[in-house]
Amino acid sequence: MDVLLQQLVNGLILGSLYALVALGYTMVYGILELINFAHGEIVMLGALVSVTVLGVLVAAGVPVPLALLLALAAAVLVCMATGVLVERIAYRPLRNAPRLAPLITAIGVSIVLQNLAMILWGRQYLSFPPVLAPQVYAWHGASVSNVQLLIVAVAALTMGTLLLLVQRTRLGRAMRATAQNREVAGLMGVDVNRVIAATFAVGSALAAVAGLLIASYYGIAHYNMGFLLGLKAFSAAVLGGIGNIPGALLGGLLLGVIESLGAGYIGDLTGGFLGSHYQDIFAFFILILVLIFRPSGLLGERVADRA
Amino acid sequence: MPDLLPNRFYRDPRLAWAAYAALAALLLTLPFLVDAGMGRSWVRILDFALLYVMLALGLNIVVGFAGLLDLGYVAFYAVGAYFYAILASPQLGIHLPFWALLPLGAGVACLFGVLLGAPTLRLRGDYLAIVTLGFGEIIRIFLNNLNAPFNLTNGPQGINMIDPVRIAGHSLTRPIEILGLKLPGTHTHYYLFLILTLGVIFVAIRLQGSRIGRAWAAIREDEVAAEAMGINTRNMKLLAFAMGATFGGLGGGLFAAFQGFVSPESFTLMESIMILCMVVLGGMGHIPGVILGAILVTILPELLRYIGPLQEGLIGRVAVDPADLRMLLFGVALVAVMLFRPQGLWPSPVRARELHPANPDEVRQEQEALYDAER
Q1: What is the pLDDT at residue B318?
Q2: Same domain, B154 and B227
Q3: Does B276 reside within a domain?
Q4: How many domains in chain B?
Q5: How many domains, chain A?
Q6: Could you give the percent of chain B with pLDDT greater than 90?
Q7: Which terminus in chain A has less CB density within 10 A, N or C?
Q8: pLDDT of A102-154, one tens digit each?
Q9: What is the pLDDT of residues B161-191, one digit of tens each?
Q10: Are residues B29 and B178 both part of a single domain?
Q11: Is residue B375's pLDDT more than 50?
Q12: Average pLDDT of B247-275?
């Protein structure tokens, strides 16, 4: 029971991070039908920027809460600027091009960002400054640290803000309209280019928050961290039904839980044949299984077959 | 070979033969020219370029002909490579002959293609992409971990000392002398790969124009319409997957024998993405374009190694480590090419006309007709 509870708690924490990143994928996909491969690198950028700024500020004696906020602000600014710039340079000119062309530019941008980060920050792992004294709470045999609780709280707050933005504001309505039908939204007076840029900005801001949280969760940041993370987050978005915001939340949480349960139980399930290093297989296997039985994801709508 | 050359060559067969003869002469002497001009390591790169041409043509069947986005193509390459590596190395102490294993490996890869394809082919475009991607990762993780409880793949260390290709009892890794001409291993592999690549090109061209190829094109353009025309879309898509996987397995076997060493490192998602880049960059669905794309994407990162000396020449010192800058520039090149030529560097004439119509009025009328039909 303790193990189960502990794995569930771990899974939910990890899952909230996946969900945060998955939202960025799903928002862009909802509007452009584009797999934004560079999104994982934006998360990486957010992590590296926030760790660097935080390190400098803490060393300069700035109080910790203020330093955290400033680091977050810096990461959000850098990521938003990068996200919007990437959209402007690499995606907008290709909006009416063959479908795979923007996919290749996305891959190109991802390679560029990764190598740029490698040149700027070097190949070594940056460690997250120990700003919060770790404190562990025990609850029914499962343990949670204050950092983990803070991570979940910030992630939930960010996602709540996003939902408000999408459901309650003018910009959010414009986004939903553009996602439904770009041409008609344009005819209704929505400035489609601005809305798409705004979508990238919002998605990148989420990525920045996720970057900071992930760096504090693992305690390290590295130029190479974006790729696999992006892959998993994208899988989470697909699991939930890509283009669907609640779907990304559900998919992220589910993937996190599946992964940590998988890591904990895969040995028992297979009679010791497969060890915990197969946890990624577990995640992908569930993903494939879900898609076979629900081809458009858990919450995705049935879309008409159109190439 | 249809549409490899501009039209005027068909009108004058003598010109066409002259062009083919020149091309053949170039291909035959290329390793010697490259060896003399740029060094032995470049002949090796040339061998890899040919290997990638085969792989890209295989993926082109899936992505370019049938329009199915496959992000896990490297899995089939891995299956072919490990199949050969396991059955022709000290790993299990089995040493089966290369010429028996190569077709078998391709067959096993084909089987994997069908296994993956059968349950997943009713997925829509990007969902299929993520499933194939997941499959690729699953294969790689298995290769990485199948050293326990039974050591099949030797885990992350990979399999070493794989048997080389043997032709009439002679190992291709050793230099060979024919008619007083000394051929080192890189050169003999070049000729072997060249012959096989030509075979693959031939098969790809014949497939494209065949009944099957036309069915694939119909599915790519509009699956619903294709099905309405009586095409068994499920079987056709499965066939595309299987054919693509077969080529991948073939490439894998050659890779293992050529390299003498395989490890899971060689079969990451990035490798799949690179092969996809070759296909899309060159011109999806257009065989000469894909060949061009494969050669460029193989050679460009190697050429970019000269960035270091170039920096020294330009600004007097090496400001940024060339190894770091190399992939950065490669990424920039990918973006730039797609921005300037979204349809690829050498698209098929039909594609090019769709995107850059000679007569805009005609297209507008066509679109209006389509719009009416949709209502």
Answers
A1: 65
A2: yes
A3: yes
A4: 2
A5: 1
A6: 43
A7: N
A8: 888 998 999 999 999 999 998 889 998 887 777 888 877 788 888 889 999 99
A9: 898 888 877 787 778 777 777 778 888 899 9
A10: no
A11: no
A12: 92
DSSP state of B267: G
> What part of A 3-42 touches B (C-beta under 8 Å)?
29, 33, 35
Residue B324 CA from chain centroid, whole number: 26
Question: Sign of dihedral through CA atoms B49, B52, B57, B60?
Answer: negative
Domain-located, residue B143: yes
Instruction: Kindly calculate the radius of gyration of chain A based on its CA atoms and give it in whole angstroms.
Output: 19
Q: Are B155 and B105 contained in the same domain?
A: yes
Total residues found in chain A within this entry:
307
Tokens of A4: 């189960």
- Please indicate, yes or no, whether residues B6 and B114 belong to a single structural domain of this protein: no
* Chain A residues lying within 8 Å of B59, measured CB to CB: none
ipTM of the complex, rounded to two decimals: 0.86
Q: Which domain, by its residues, includes B34?
A: 1-38
Q: Does pLDDT of B85 surpass 80? A: yes
- In Å, how far from its chain's centre is CA A72? 15
A185/chain B closest Cα distance in angstroms: 19
Q: How many CA atoms lie within 13 A of B316 on its CB side?
A: 0
Residue position matching structure tokens 């590596």: B85
What Cα–Cα distance (Å) separates residue B2 from each residue in B28, B220, B348?
A: 22, 21, 12
Rounded Cα–Cα distance for residues A280 and A228 (Å): 10
User: What does pLDDT average to over chain A?
Assistant: 88
Collapse the DSSP code of B84 into the 3-class scheme (helix H, G, I; strand E, B; otherwise coil) and give the result: helix
Q: Are B322 and B305 in contact (CB under 8 A)?
A: yes
Selection from A227-241, B13-27, B85-99, B102-116 with the highest mean pLDDT: B102-116
Instruction: Take residue A62 and report the two structure tokens written for it.
Output: 């700035």
Q: Are residues B91 and B135 in the same domain?
A: yes
State phi, psi for A143 to the nearest 5 degrees.
-115, 140
At B51-60, the pLDDT tens digits run 999 999 999 9
Instruction: Compare CB distances from B324 to A119, A238, A278 and report the shortest one's residue.
Output: A119
Q: Which A residues in the span 225-284 are in contact with B, Cβ-Cβ below 8 Å?
A: 227, 231, 234-235, 238, 242, 273-275, 277-278, 280-281, 284
